[in-house]
Amino acid sequence: MDSAVDEATGGGGSAPVDTKKKPAAAAKGRATAGKGKAGAKADTKTKESSLLKQKSPAEFFAENKNIAGFDNPGKSLYTTMRELVENALDSAESISELPDIEITIEEITKSKFNTMIGLVDRERVDEALYDDFESDKAREKRLAKEARFQETQAKNAALGKKVKEAPTVRAKGRGEASFFRVTCKDNGRGMPHDDIPNMLGRVLSGTKYGLRQTRGKFGLGAKMALIWSKMSTGLPIDIKSAMKGQNYISFCRLDIDIHKNVPHVHLHEKKANKDHWHGAELQVVIEGNWTTHRSRILHYMRQMAVITPYAQFLFRFLSDAAEKNLTIRFARRTDVMPPVPVQTKHHPSAVDLLLIKRLISETTKQNLLQFLQHEFVNISKPHAERLIGEMGPDFSPKMAVKSLTSQQLVRIHQLFRQAKFDDPSGNCLSPAGEYNLRLGIIKELHPDMVATHASSAQVFEGHPFIVEAGISIGGKDVKHGINIFRFANRIPLLFEQGADVITRTALKRINWSSYKINQQQDKIGVFVSIVSTKIPFKGTGKEYIGDDITEISSAVKLALKQCCLQLKSKIVKKLQARERQDRKRNLNRYIPDVARAFMETLVEIADESPPKRPRYDKEDEELLEKVNSQEVTEMTFRDCLAQHVEQVDYEMALEYAMQSGVSEEPREEIYLNSLDGSYKFVDFQSPLFVFRFIP
Amino acid sequence: MSEKKRRAGPAAAGAASSSKKPRAAASYAESLRSKLRPDASILTSLRALASACAAASSKSKAAGKDPADQDPAADYIVVADQDSTSVTSRINRLVLAAARSILSGRGFSFAVPSRASSNQVYLPDLDRIVLLRRESARPFTNVATARKATVTARVLSLVHAVLRRGIHVTKRDLFYTDVKLFGDQSQSDAVLDDVSCMLGCTRSSLHVVASEKGVVVGRLIFADDGDQIDCTRMGVGGKAIPPNIDRVSGIESDALFILLVEKDAAFMRLAEDRFYNRFPCIILTAKGQPDVATRLFLRRLKVELKLPVLALVDSDPYGLKILSVYMCGSKNMSYDSANLTTPDIKWLGVRPSDLDKYRVPEQCRLPMTDHDIKVGKELLEEDFVKQNEGWVKELETMLRTRQKAEIQALSSFGFQYLTEVYLPLKLQQQDWI
């Protein structure tokens, strides 16, 4: 979605060009017409459109909140939480601090909510006015049912059976809204005191624009949550923030003026920062639905913990009912953090006309040659000269870049489309890293086996991307069959799984059985993380990546296959080990049958009277003698065979041990959390190490 | 419609306009009836065929050697009928050797000829599939073969017991003597074939037979275990072909040919219409894929009576496949192919070219499935098909038109069209390849 934002700001940025050149104005008009959204978001300061009715970006998103994932109260609660968490992670990572994030969702009952906003509780007077009014008939029915239930309950109790919980009789009425206070606290960069209102109270203003791998989807994040809180509860947002080394904490309470898209500040003050805290804490009260989206939220937290094992999360759910309360801590398992993704320049094959215009208006470079050389990746100086030569006689390396006409820009654009450029490198990307992915999987799923693979950077439409994959077998809380965990730019994707490229690839294009994996019976975890400067999402919700991009689907398939190959050798080894264990048992099982079969025949041969029977070798005759004299019996055969099996098994075991002894699995480093606080240790000294016990 | 006309073209031979409607086709089929000459003249031609066939076989006998007799043990396995004492002594030797090996603490192992399909080849000289001589060890102390070795030992001991008592049992009987060990009849059956190969004797020499499947009816008299059987007095169902060929003796017949039928339904039609009384013949069916007993029986008839064999099968790849089993043997029983195959079977019908010749209506023809076509193409590569030019042509016709039909397709002209018109006409025209 970065590009939509880019276009929006680009539209605004190109305004100065319009005033200079007439054709440019035409181009701008086309751009706005082509992009309805961009048009609606057009900056308020554009003068020429004053005759038209204006809609602020905040208004647009308030009306189309489903675009940002605020479809219904339940989804809104989920999206609010995730936007806050993702902002918090970005903030901590931007200063290379190991993220430490606390999320609290607090259920607020209606009366509590009313007192919060200063509304006096009012009893219902005209009961029949309400949707959940119970008529006399319905009441009779219910009472009869309850009586019946109590009767069976009493019977069960008398028989000593377990007493069932009384079923919850009433579902919540339609009008019964539930409210939640969502708080998210991080240890990140914090926000400069004076910028807070603009950073949170103005839609489509942000720090994450530009070509870079970011978590943020719209640059909306917290602002959308604010709009939702304003729509559902009318309550403002509370922000506490402090930057590193700042001796005060900024406190700000604000809401947003949706029509003007400007912040409306209630309170903006500085407080003492005694603990040298840095980071941000946002608190917002919104309408939501915990019942329907509880599992989604928990899944999100778990998957986030998988992909960011270097972060520590504390998730709490608080409500009046104690049994519903929930505290989950996702512990940190490593202090290795992926590098901060760096901002990169555009790749010539990935730019459009509007973007070229914007780059020209923003560039500090004077002439065309410098512009091409410095504002794009993979264009060297000689390459730029060749390109300019190719553009025709109207172009020269020294011409002022700001003087280019609209037609000339189209020429450049066309050339960019057709010319061949080297692929952009993946250096600007920040994948989770195989190590972290592996650790995350082990930490959260405790699988029996895990394999990971990171592909090298590849390119789709001028944007580099990296696919990392992991496959786990077994583990706790994993369903039988294939469990898919999708990540895009290191955030979990939970919705619209069916059409996703990862789902399709895992279910359709991997022949699991050829890797000795049972698609139905085994607990398979499939983890795929795709990072890119632009993730090619499908649909409005930005919840899945389409299956029609061959570059991505083949990269996903390859990565998964690599994981499978790693697993296969492990599985085969395991099967061999099991076979070794079973060998003796399997062989011994058949001994009685064999002994009986041979003995029966031998007795029959021996029974035949000597004249009728053909002569055999001397040894055979001796054997038959022994059978006749019962010196050799079925038991003799059994013993001999058992002995032989024992011997063979021993030899094979020796051979196996010799083979498998060589190829032991590589060891993995473990991460130990440092202990906080001071303890009294009991030391056990040794010449080489010390054991310290906490008594 | 034009395509249909084109296909009907060569067969219609000038009467193309009548091919448009099924009714017209039916009347054409009926018109063929008038082409029939009196049975007597057909019989003369049949007699000529029979005597030619007898002469040919006696000549080949005079020429002396079946190529298989020249060097039977060279490259491939040939099993022979053996009496029970020699089979018993072979088993005895195997068992004694294994027993001594066990007692000396070395476990035991059987050397079993490999019956893998890669080991079975068609020899054009012999015109049948044979099993190459290649043995694989079956040691007891190997997880992969322990079970097979055990089953082999058990089957050997069971066969030994059967032979000693001088009785016959079915494969099913054998299986039920130790269900727990065998688990599945296919396993004991497979090991039984292995044992045949190991001992170098036919399966019937082991006194283990399959249950009855084939049926015979017609001008044939033989003794089944001493009881005189007259196959003209067997009703419509026919006489079940004895699974144990040893019981059959004293074969007599005044038939002029043997008619091999693929299906039970066509067999019943022929039997009920007493086709064998109109044209003296022996009618035989195995109800689909032929079992060992039927193949043995057919071979026995052919060798003793020296009659020509005509085949009536479906016009589809499977019909041909069944024919190939009669003629060249199956892969599963390749080690015994010398005793089981009857070369020189003539393909009488229903051939792909007949569909147009007799103007079988479109609704009675079926489109070939992809699988059919695959099988058909594979057949074209088979040596036994390539040997006969006429067959190649017919198969190519089938693959080109992509149509197949069953024998019953002829019933569209009336249930008795098969016996009253189709077969007599075929015989009269000597239309076999």
Structural class by sheet pairing and helices of chain B: alpha/beta
Helix proportion of chain B: 40-55%
CATH architecture label name of the largest domain in chain B: 3-Layer(aba) Sandwich
CATH level-1 class of one domain in chain A: Alpha Beta
Described by strand count, sense and barrel closure, the largest sheet of chain A is: 8 strands, mixed
Poorly predicted sequence stretches spanning 5 or more consecutive residues of chain B: 1-21, 62-70
Q: Would you count the extended β strands of chain A for me?
A: 18
Q: Assign the CATH topology of one domain in chain A.
A: Heat Shock Protein 90
**Residues in helix, % of chain A:** 40-55%
Structural class of chain A: alpha+beta
CATH superfamily of one domain in chain A: Histidine kinase-like ATPase, C-terminal domain
Query: CA-to-CA gap between the ends of chain B?
Result: 31 Å
Instruction: Give the low-pLDDT segments of chain A.
Output: 1-46, 168-175
Compute the number of structural domains of chain B. 2
Specify Rg of chain A, calculated over alpha carbons: 36 Å
Can you tell me the overall shape of chain B? Answer: elongated
Can you name the CATH architecture of one domain in chain A? 2-Layer Sandwich
Helix count, DSSP H or I runs of 4 or more residues of chain B: 19
Report the portion of residues of chain B in β strands. 15-25%
Cofactor (chain B): Mg(2+)
Catalytic activity (chain B): ATP-dependent breakage, passage and rejoining of double-stranded DNA
GO biological process, one term (chain B): meiotic DNA double-strand break formation
InterPro entries (chain B): Spo11/TopoVI_A, Spo11/TopoVI_A_N, Spo11/TopoVI_A_sf, TopoVI_A, TOPRIM_Topo6A/Spo11, WH-like_DNA-bd_sf
Topology:
The complex is a heterodimer of chains A (695) and B (433).
Chain A lengths: L1 H12 L1 H6 L1 H13 L1 H5 L16 H7 L9 H22 L5 E9 L1 H7 L19 H24 L18 E8 L10 H6 L19 H12 L4 E6 L5 E10 L4 E11 L6 E10 L1 H18 L4 E7 L7 E5 L22 H10 L5 H8 L5 H11 L14 H13 L15 H12 L3 E6 L3 E3 L2 E11 L7 E8 L2 E3 L7 H9 L13 E10 L4 E2 L5 E2 L4 H58 L10 H11 L5 H29 L19 E4 L4 E4 L2
Parallel strand pairs in A: 1-7, 12-14
Antiparallel strand pairs in A: 1-2, 2-6, 3-4, 3-6, 4-5, 7-8, 9-11, 10-11, 11-14, 12-13, 15-16, 17-18
Chain B lengths: L1 H11 L9 H14 L3 H25 L3 H4 L5 E2 L6 H20 L5 E5 L6 E4 L4 E5 L2 E5 L6 H20 L3 E2 H7 L1 H4 L2 H15 L8 E2 L5 E4 L2 E4 L2 E4 L8 E2 L7 E5 L4 E5 L2 H9 L2 H4 L2 E5 L6 H14 L3 E4 L4 H12 L8 H4 L4 E5 L2 H6 L8 E2 L2 H12 L1 H4 L2 H13 L1 E2 L12 H13 L4
Parallel strand pairs in B: 6-7, 13-14, 13-15, 15-16
Antiparallel strand pairs in B: 1-4, 2-5, 3-4, 8-11, 8-14, 9-10, 9-12, 17-18
EC number (chain A): 5.6.2.2
Keywords (chain A): ATP-binding, DNA-binding, Isomerase, Nucleotide-binding, Nucleus, Topoisomerase
Organism (chain A): Eragrostis curvula (weeping love grass)
